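Weekly puzzle thread! Below is a chain. First person to post its structure in token form gets bragging rights.
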Amino acid sequence: AGRVVDIGSGKGYLSETLSGVYGLDVVGVDSSPGNTSGAVKRKDLVAKLRRGRPPAGRGGVFVPVTKFVGDDVDLDSICPPPVDGEGSDSTGVVLTGLHTCGDLTPLVLRLFLRSQRAKVLCCVGCCYHLLTETDSESTENNSKSNFEPVEETADVLTSSGKFSELKLEEKSPDSPKFPLSKFVEKLGIFLGRKARMVACLSADKLGTGQPAPTLSLHFRAVLNFIVDRLKLTVDEDKKVGKTFWKCSGFLDYARQAAVKLGVATSFEEMTDGEIVEIYDSFRKDDWKILAVNQLRACVGRCIETIIVLDRVLGLLEGLQDKTGEVFIVKMFDPLVSPRCYAIVATKKTFRTKTPVQK
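Winning reply:
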């Protein structure tokens, strides 16, 4: 393969490593103009730091591009094919994505199947709760940036190593991304957002002595009890967010959360002592939340397995007319990165010998 296309490249950490350390030509594709701008700045900073140092080998070219990858995207529009006279090996493309979020993983897999130039795939998915299961499912499950129309002009790496302009426009997803395979589709499996959120939990951390995130869940449950007790109405767009990580205890948490939820005035009717007393009355139920969270994490691994195997089956079905292989490869320590399994696929190509003219 001649080049690497890094889908969902973010600020270019993987792309820059593949380019600067391993000497590969990489096109980093991300739907966010902010991420592309950050990738360009980081690329320039890395080049400045490397200035004056002898290169470890052939230096690759890294080109950050802003583009939304949908069902209709063409690989040639991202990475143009080589011009006549270049080696045939340079026409091939490696598609990769590190922790491609939500719908992006199945989109990358479909791009791999329909593009003749895509020869190798290596993709690690994440954020299963953002997957689109049916056409009727609310689009709020997806990243907001996927639906805001954006028009940009970006540089794309041409076959000669120069840059060309490409006009880009974002579009919304065209089809459900789970199930990906016809086999799972025939089984009629529907997971739903809550089950997919459970699939994001890490069961590996349960046996290491690391504390489960039950305290934050307990804080939210008690806060919800107080809101119901005071018969308060909270707007749906109001969120507690990451208040738990900014507080010194439940009392501080409750006061800060009340401000964020827009009910601080009503909370002032309760004294600090009353709030602490309510919280202490629920402390005996801590073990119940811990047990539920452990069960959810264990079930989550089963749900993640369904999602990953569906993607493998989808690739195998799509490769029936071609000669290829599909693997599941453990790439990372699950304690560091719970989404640690990569889907790796290859397409085998056969070269026919040119007959010798006598």
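Puzzle host: Confirmed. Bonus trivia for everyone else. Residues 135-173, 350-358 have pLDDT under 50 and may be disordered.
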